[in-house]
Amino acid sequence: MGISLHSQCFFCFICILLIFCITNGFTHHAYSQCLEDQRTLLLELKNDLIFNSTLSRKLVLWNQTQDCCTWNGVECDGTGHVISLQLDGEGISGGIHNSSSLSGLRYLKRLNLADNDFGGVQIPEGILNLKNLTHLDLSNACFGGQVPIEVSLMRRLVNLDLSSFFSNYVLKVESPNLKMLLQNLTGLRELYLDGVNISAQGSEWCQAISSSLPELRILSLCGCSLSVSNFFANFSYLTTLSLSGCGLNSIPQSLFSLPSLKTLILSDNRLSGRLYEFPTLQFSNIVELDLSDNRLEGQIPESFFTLERLEFLILSQNFFNGTVPLEKFQRLQYLGVLDLSYNNLFVDTSITDTSLSMFPQLYVLGLASCNLDKFPDLINQHKLVYLDLSNNRITGEVPNWIWEIGNGTLYSLNLSSNLLVGLQKPYHIPSSLRILDVHSNLLHGELPPVPLYAYYIDYSHNNFEKSIPLNIGNSTTKLLYLSLANNSLSGAIPTSFCNATLLKVLDMSANKLSGTIPPCLVQNLKQLGNYLERSLPVSLANCKSLRVLNVGNNNIDDGFPCMLASSLRVLVLRSNRFHGQVRCSRSWSNLQIIDIASNNFSGYLYTKSFSGMMLEKHARLESDYIHYNSSILFSDQYYAAKVIIKGVELEFEKILTTFTVIDFSCNNFQGEIPDAIGDLSSLQVLNLSHNTFAGTIPKSLGNLTQLGSLDLSTNQLRGEIPKELTCLTFLGALNLSNNQLIGPIPSGPQLQTFSTDSFQGNTGLCGFPLNISCRHTGENDNVPPPNSYRKDEAINWDYVSVALGYVVGLGSIFWLLFFCRSFKHKFNDQTEHVFEKVFNPKGRRKRHRGRVTRRC
Ligand SMILES: *[C@@H]1O[C@H](CO)[C@@H](O)[C@H](O)[C@H]1NC(C)=O
Ligand SMILES: *[C@@H]1O[C@H](CO)[C@@H](O)[C@H](O)[C@H]1NC(C)=O
Ligand SMILES: *[C@@H]1O[C@H](CO)[C@@H](O)[C@H](O)[C@H]1NC(C)=O
Ligand SMILES: *[C@@H]1O[C@H](CO)[C@@H](O)[C@H](O)[C@H]1NC(C)=O
Ligand SMILES: *[C@@H]1O[C@H](CO)[C@@H](O)[C@H](O)[C@H]1NC(C)=O
Ligand SMILES: *[C@@H]1O[C@H](CO)[C@@H](O)[C@H](O)[C@H]1NC(C)=O
Ligand SMILES: *[C@@H]1O[C@H](CO)[C@@H](O)[C@H](O)[C@H]1NC(C)=O
Ligand SMILES: *[C@@H]1O[C@H](CO)[C@@H](O)[C@H](O)[C@H]1NC(C)=O
Ligand SMILES: *[C@@H]1O[C@H](CO)[C@@H](O)[C@H](O)[C@H]1NC(C)=O
Ligand SMILES: *[C@@H]1O[C@H](CO)[C@@H](O)[C@H](O)[C@H]1NC(C)=O
Ligand SMILES: *[C@@H]1O[C@H](CO)[C@@H](O)[C@H](O)[C@H]1NC(C)=O
Ligand SMILES: *[C@@H]1O[C@H](CO)[C@@H](O)[C@H](O)[C@H]1NC(C)=O
Q1: What percent of the chain has pLDDT over 90?
Q2: Can you say whether the dihedral through the CA atoms of 382, 386, 389, 394 is positive or negative?
Q3: Is 827 within 8 Å of 633 (Cβ atoms)?
Q4: How confident is the model at residue 367 (pLDDT cuts 50, 70, 90)?
Q5: Among 116, 464, 474, 720, which residue's Cβ finds the most Cβ atoms within 10 Å?
Q6: How far does residue 670's CA lie from ligand 11's centre (Å)?
């Protein structure tokens, strides 16, 4: 049966997550025989613990008939006592409170229960009794409540990790406070309290830590909402300070004078304003400096160029401006990672002295969106493995030397969104290349070959023509993502794709392809292809594992697809002719993204169906983190591992998988916005614009504390803006324009940072930032003067900044980004690491400067 795939006939591949269990192959180094009592205790423990044997890779394999010192996750000392227990990521969900056996393991020095789900219970006695512990890792284990005082008695602790990210359960340090908990842990060298709710006045916590923990080397307090003070000056041994996502507003000068400080990570904060010179910087020992994803402005301080030991400099995603000669960084001769992407910089790449290689050590170079108009001369950069020159205005051909940089070890090359017209011949794409992105250029001619071991290839949005090489599948055995969309490719889809067994995303939309779809590709595709012009195939209901359905930008004339499986995580129906009400008798409790914008849906949003549709009220937030294990993923690629660990993604090990989006814009929905919307607590993007919603803005929106983008524009909303909206501290984009809102714009730092555009077209609104004072209410009189906020208001809502720096935007990349998020569910699928790397490396996130407002 032939199916013709005309341009526009977008067929999206439904990518069903395959679960690859990576066997961790935990190796044990002790060879002594297990003591009987230790064995008994371990077996009791296993018996007490409630764990999911599908997820478990250690406990489940403990075999009574074998020496317990050889069990996965267990390590003994020379006398057969268990000294280390590593039960992270075992799917444990309870039973620890009832177990007395854990505290029986008195010789235990290292305990790791990270990445389990203890459902918010307090850290149990069984753990607290282990007074001999030197290493305790309870990160992301869903413990909750106050951290018990008993922790302060674990005096041998060297390494304590209580971090949790985006768990429903928050660990608190309130009473006993931080000082009490830490004052006797004088041997602590590494302390991770990321995401712990520490209540401390001002800089009290700083004092508590600096006065009690003289040995501290690594301090990580990401997302703790603390303020920083000069007490840091007393941390004489501190080598690593990670305060990313802390909501910090100023860089304290004293940080740069810490005598031992080598790594300073302040990414994802709200650091703003100009950076003035740091006079003490030349004496600093700083090796790694990451200020990315803040709001820093002005020129890059000259004193940064005096940091001669610097190996790692990430300034991406700020508002640094001015012209910077790349040559200037040559002074920093140890520089291995340099990322200046997504600022307002003009990077001048011309080189006056070409005799030397510019940066002898450089292995990561990020110059995305740096106003480049030609390729920098990188011929002599023999160590470069990661190069990002995307989003510039580079014209002409891709020079063939580019494939040779890094001396045949180039790993990732991003040339997307430039004005490139072709590839200089002859060229040879090195087999080292794993990631190649040239999308959105003007490239024409035959499709370049796919590098042999590539994971991710994006050739889309170019003018590539002729047919897809028949043997393309021969070299795609490792390929996970391939997009050839929006080109002028013709002919048949090669059957060799059947060899691309790992392929998760194959997008060949908007070409001139014809012929049959190779039967080996997703079975349902045939039907999907057949029906796509008219309606969605009912047989989709049979896809019990369907996770992503993207049929956006087609011509589908159908009702809402109520039949889709409950496994659905991403549903994109945008820009079709879908119609009728959105009302189903079932719910999708896993749905994270729903984009049904620009259709003809109508009617009311029923509270019941609506709230059932997204994450249920108390649904567990998916706080699953992907653990990166360099030895698994890139065992053959030393550099690559290095890149990922050090360069691109500092927080690579702990990544949020939840991202929820509702885009119902540009339809004919009517009636009130249901209160129940306030129950969707993990919502990060809400767009209901261009409908005919009436009534008032629900106060419950104030409960959406993760919301980063809110667009209710062009509706018929009435009444006042609820003051609850001032609680939305992560809001980076707001549009309430063109409604019938009245009264004062609620005061407080949040809403006033938006420009007048956010509020225009509401004749009854008053107060800052509008130029209309609220004469009779007086309520807005105490609004601080505009200049106490960011001066450059327009910029502030030109991009969407959401919780902890997840930056999203609108447009195709946006959806790709989300697309990938759906893949990052709890499975330790190695492929996800690659997706993560590709889609969301922290330094590469796009700052979308498009307005929030879209036309229908
Ligand atoms: C165990 O984990 C698997 C994979 O995540 C899941 O499908 C299954 O429902 C879990 N079993 C239980 C009893 O929770
Ligand atoms: C346990 O180990 C013994 C001896 O090595 C082996 O024969 C047996 O099959 C194992 N049991 C399980 C459940 O793996
Ligand atoms: C286990 O411990 C929990 C919490 O302490 C308690 O509620 C539960 O009754 C205990 N179960 C058993 C079987 O002892
Ligand atoms: C600590 O370990 C020692 C052996 O190294 C043991 O004798 C002692 O009982 C342990 N302490 C506690 C509180 O379990
Ligand atoms: C810390 O140690 C001191 C002296 O040993 C003791 O008096 C104090 O109670 C301890 N504090 C805590 C919180 O355990
Ligand atoms: C932290 O704790 C304080 C006091 O208990 C509470 O008011 C606040 O909401 C908590 N913050 C978070 C993020 O849980
Ligand atoms: C920091 O050190 C100075 C001088 O050594 C000392 O006077 C001060 O009390 C210390 N501050 C704290 C918080 O420990
Ligand atoms: C850079 O930004 C600062 C404000 O942060 C502004 O005063 C200055 O004019 C800008 N310089 C250039 C060259 O745009
Ligand atoms: C490039 O690689 C080759 C082979 O691996 C090696 O012999 C040569 O020294 C390298 N050249 C440079 C400049 O690193
Ligand atoms: C590649 O694919 C083609 C077409 O499927 C096939 O004939 C050929 O044997 C394959 N192998 C190589 C090494 O090209
Ligand atoms: C798959 O790859 C093998 C080896 O490269 C090749 O011989 C074979 O023809 C390919 N299969 C298809 C369907 O192209
Ligand atoms: C916000 O959530 C809290 C707790 O879940 C609830 O008590 C309150 O009524 C909600 N507020 C609104 C305005 O819905």
Answers
A1: 32
A2: positive
A3: no
A4: very high
A5: 116
A6: 55
Contacts of 655 (CB under 8 A, 6+ apart): 625, 626, 824, 836, 840
68-72 CB contacts, 8 Å cutoff, 24+ apart: 68/34, 68/38, 68/39, 68/42, 69/28, 69/30, 69/31, 69/32, 69/33, 69/34, 70/28, 70/34, 71/28, 71/42, 72/24, 72/26, 72/28
Per-residue pLDDT, 209: 82
Q: Which of 58, 66, 70 to mutate to test ligand 2, by most ligand atoms within 8 A of the CB atom?
A: 66
Please determine, for residue 389, whether its predicted confidence score (pLDDT) is greater than 90.
Answer: yes
- 55 Cβ closer than 6 Å to some ligand 1 atom: yes
Calculate mean pLDDT across residues 130-138. Answer: 95
CA distance 74 to 851: 54
Sole residue written with tokens 């002919």: 491
Give the CA distances from residue 332 to residues 275, 351, 367, in Å, rounded to whole numbers and listed in that order: 19, 16, 17
Of 58 and 608, the structure prediction assigns the larger pLDDT to 58
Question: What is the DSSP annotation of 713-725?
Answer: -SS--EEEPPGGG
Place of tokens 């192959």: 25
> Residue 736's closest CA among 95, 750, 309, 66?
750
**What is the edge-to-edge ordering of all strands in the sheet holding 444-445?**
444-445, 463-467, 488-491, 512-513
Structure tokens at 766: 């008053």
Question: For the domain 532-835, what is the CATH code?
Answer: 3.80.10.10
3-state secondary structure 190-241: EEECCCCEECCCCCHHHHHHHHHCCCCCEEECCCCCCCCCHHHHHCCCCCEE
- The arithmetic mean of pLDDT across residues 375-383, rounded, is 89
- Tell me if residue 503 falls in helix, strand or coil: coil
Residue 340, SS3?
Answer: coil
What's the 234 CA to ligand 7 centre distance in angstroms? 6
The bridge status of strand 171-173 relative to strand 145-146 is: parallel
Half-sphere exposure in the Cβ direction for 776 (13 Å, CA): 2
Helix (H, G, I), strand (E, B) or coil at 542: helix
Report d(CA 750, CA 494) in Å as an integer.
54
What was the pLDDT predicted at 831? 32
Atom of ligand 4 nearest to the CA of 106: 14
pLDDT of residue 214: 82
SS3 of 541, please?
Answer: helix
**Rounded to 5 degrees, what angle do the CA atoms 191, 193, 199 make?**
125
CA of 781 to the centre of ligand 1 (A): 56
Among all bound ligands, the one having the nearest atom to the CA of 681 is 12
User: How many Å apart are CA 264 and CA 289, to the nearest integer?
Assistant: 5
Predicted local distance difference test score (pLDDT) of residue 641 = 25
Burial class (CB in 10 A: 0-12, 13-18, 19+), 593: buried
Residue 316: its pLDDT value, please?
Answer: 92
Q: What is the mean pLDDT of the chain?
A: 74
Report strand pairing: 579-580 vs 692-694.
unpaired
Q: What angle do CA 688, 693, 694 make, to 5 degrees?
A: 140
Interval between CA 198 and ligand 6 midpoint (Å): 8
Q: Give distance in angstroms: CA of 54 to centre of ligand 1.
A: 6
d(CA 727, CA 741): 19
Q: Is 52 in the pocket of ligand 1 (CB under 6 A)?
A: yes
794 Cβ inside 6 Å of ligand 10: no
Which residue has the CA at smallest separation from atom 14 of ligand 5?
A: 152
Q: What is the pLDDT of residue 164?
A: 78
Q: How far is CA 33 from CA 38, 70, 143, 598, 838, in A?
A: 10, 9, 34, 68, 46
Q: Give yes or no for a contact between 532 and 510, defined as CB atoms under 8 angstroms apart.
A: no
At 795, the pLDDT band (50, 70, 90 cuts) reads very low
Say if CB 158 and CB 186 are below 8 A apart: no
Residue type for 337, please? Answer: V
